[in-house]
Amino acid sequence: MKRIAIALVLTLPLVAARADVGALAAIQNSGVIRLGHLQNSPPFSYLEGGTPQGYSVELCKHVAESIQRQLKLTSLRIQWVPLKLQERIPAVRERKVDIECGTTTWTLSRQQEVDFSLMTFVDGASVLVRRNSDMLRLADLNGKKIAVVPTTTTASALQATLKARMLSAVVVPVDTPEEGVTKLREGEVDGYASDRVLLLGQGLAVKDEANLRVLDEDFSVEPYALVLARGDPDFRLAIDRALAALYRSGDIESIFERWLGPLGRPSTLLSALYYLQSIPE
Fold it and tell me: Which domains are seen in the chain, by residue range?
């Protein structure tokens, strides 16, 4: 108990400092930037060999390097903070991390609690099913069981779509993507809903991936962005400056190819996103 109390005493001043002076000043004073990452959302944010990997993780590394240059720091240490899906928004809101580097969809309701960078990706939600099933579209899951992580935007979009289309599928809450895929493989549910690229990554990660496939239909649009605390415009500008430069230079293409290339070329919509956000300096 004493150790916990000491840890709180040491941590609270750091959190308060970022709230009082802004993240850039706190980063400059400490020489540390705290980046939150997911542990099981390939190919965007996951652990491999104990090291954070993925598309969003690499974008955050690029942002950290840019902030180091903007602040003229000789060095900047990245402190990686592992987060669960349910912890992403609270961790940023409570300033336990400076940036969340995962698969968070930018929504107006979330923007009441946190702020967002320029968009980093755009995807659509769909459903992973067993390959030997006859399901091709969401309507084919009428009367079936669909697993979903309840704290995601996919969950609310799924419920709204089922209601709008008058489909009676049973939504089964799961704590993690792995639990959803496991329930699907073992026949406890008929589908697992998430963002399409995440479903492809999670499907490829299992041993019997050839027995799984994604529906042909998407039922939502999911614009991803990096997440930061509200009320810190200078920090957001520093992040956006790093991303815009990355898009202008075309280096984003090699990052996409490294993490998402096996899934195909960037969609027309994603290419437009990169182009429109190549904001001039």
Answer: 2-122+224-276 (3.40.190.10), 123-221 (3.40.190.10)
